[in-house]
Amino acid sequence: MNKFVQKFVDENVELCQPEKVVLIDGSEEQLEALRKEAVETGEMIKLNQELLPGCYLHRTLPNDVARVEGRTFICTEKQETAGPTNNWLQKDEAYAMLKELYKGSMKGRTMYIIPYSMGAVGSPFSKIGIELTDSIYVVLNMAIMTRIGQKVLDQLGDSADFVHGLHSKADIDPEKRYICQFPEDNTIMSINSAYGGNVLQGKKCFALRIASYQGWQEGWMAEHMLILGLKKPNGEKRYIAAAFPSACGKTNLAMLIPPKEYLEKGYEIETVGDDIAWIRVGKDGRLYAINPENGFFGVAPGTNAKSNPNALASTRKNTIFTNVCLNTENNTVWWEGLDKNPPKNAIDWKGNPWHEGMVDEEGKPVKAAHPNSRFTAPAINCPCISPDFENPNGVPLDAIIFGGRRAKTAPLVYESKSWENGVFVGSIMASETTAAASGAVGVVRRDPMAMLPFCGYNMGDYFAHWLDMKGKATKLPKIFNVNWFRTDENGNFIWPGFGDNMRVLDWIIKRCEGAVDATETAIGYVPKAEDINLNGLDIDIDTLKGLLSVDNDMWKKDVEGIEEFYKKFGDKLPEALRAELDALKANLNK
Ligand code: GTP
Ligand code: SPV
Ligand code: MN
């Protein structure tokens, strides 16, 4: 074994004292043996193998169902490196504190060594990690979400260039739960959780928190973005990356099925990624993106044959479901919004008997599936996976989209006026919080570039890094903002969303090609209502005009929030963004 990996393993075996140590080689036999073991111990439930071949259900503890932002730390030498938006721990103090928690934490358990690659093995974009874990669930999920095993060790050779990851379930004690990233040391340590984003370290811990720092140092970007290919009837392809906060529609947009009229003309959407993009400047001066993941860890509730048939199809084999409802009639799974036929006999995500119409002591409906229940599905299962999914050189971006959940304020779509203005638009993003992280849901907060919980360094430097990309690239994508979530006076979404978002992508691509005009507003360019194709939709042009309207008074209120947020960064706030804010204020007062 690589001597650096060996040393890393030896040190942590001594610390965590597992009974056994197993190297994950990536073979199907080894994974199958682990599935069998997990079923025997009750860690996973084997589902109906005729209807859902290779599929399993797993339930986490009710106190461990989402990312825990309050217990997620960036651990660096100095606090300034982590910046004002991250929880910070001084790194030596963090190591000392964590070591106490890991001491003997794997007693009587097996430590699994998972060598994994983020990005196709051997791609110039790719990076390697080693995660040590005492959870079979983590091994089996990482086997879907990343490339794992011997081939990764072969690629690593005798290099020391890998991210050191340690995870222990320990006692799943929420009071002692820590998700710590040490970007200066390429190290991740998470403990006392067994839930997705906290423990599948390839995902948010590495591919965003550590990688964003690496990208800052090395001149590339790690972003919370989907990547899609839009194939036009003439066969040309345009690529779009989009950053929306957690549970705000990335998976859905990445896999959308265009409305009938577009399908008949020959338009297609191809999925490159649904959550994370690593972006580098290519030889031709354009930005190229890869999806560093190999699967989807997608939100289950609301996923159905109408809203996202491609995601649903992706989950019909070799998938692990977490915290959904078990239909005990046929040993399959169910969640709110899957269909209108909830199972008659079922077990809810907590493991209790469930039936439709159940209410708790306070009379509130009991959910069958947790609102943040998820599926872990292999990307190759996706019917619309892009032929460029494994392209080691990535795909060239024509447009970048930012967006969030805003009941009012933000219009359906607008285009920024320049790269700097686009970075400003990303930096002022705000969105209602969702069940993807523990804490209150539906509260509007600033979430720049959808990276608030994921930026591994000072966000002021992160903004500057975005601005600096202009000097590194010769042809930059245009930057847009979208909002699928405007509501009417009754709180209902006005825009139909999902597949119909194609109509907005169509306008965005036309703008990139210089094929359509736009109206200038205080915040940027919005479409002329007649340029958004409404054919086959139950929405009239006046409703659309409402969706596209920019209310200057509302934006003036929003500017107060932006000022407040920007203050946090002190002199780390790039001058160009301050100038953009001043320009916005002037525009609003015109
Ligand atoms: P993470 O995996 O947490 O990063 O989330 P994501 O951005 O991939 O979110 P996802 O696509 O899974 O969407 C989450 C929720 O948003 C689901 O409940 C969807 O039903 C809802 N949603 C997605 N797209 C739309 C849309 O266009 N309109 C409306 N109204 N809801 C949407
Ligand atoms: C998110 O919360 O943005 C997710 C799910 O994609 S998790 O992997 O838990 O972070
Ligand atoms: Mn995400």
CATH architecture identity of the largest domain: Alpha-Beta Complex
**What number of structural domains do the residues give?**
3
Termini, distance in Å?
Answer: 67 Å
- Count every beta strand, where a strand is a DSSP E run of 2 or more residues: 32
Shape: globular
What number is the mean pLDDT?
97
Share in β-strands: 15-25%
Q: Structural class of the secondary structure composition?
A: alpha+beta
Main beta sheet: strand number and arrangement? 9 strands, mixed
What name is given to the CATH topology of the largest domain? Phosphoenolpyruvate Carboxykinase, domain 3
Radius of gyration: 23 Å
**Helix percentage:** 25-40%
Text of the CATH class of the largest domain:
Alpha Beta
Instruction: List bound small molecules.
Output: guanosine-5'-triphosphate, sulfopyruvate, manganese (II) ion
Low-confidence stretches: none
Discrete helix count: 17
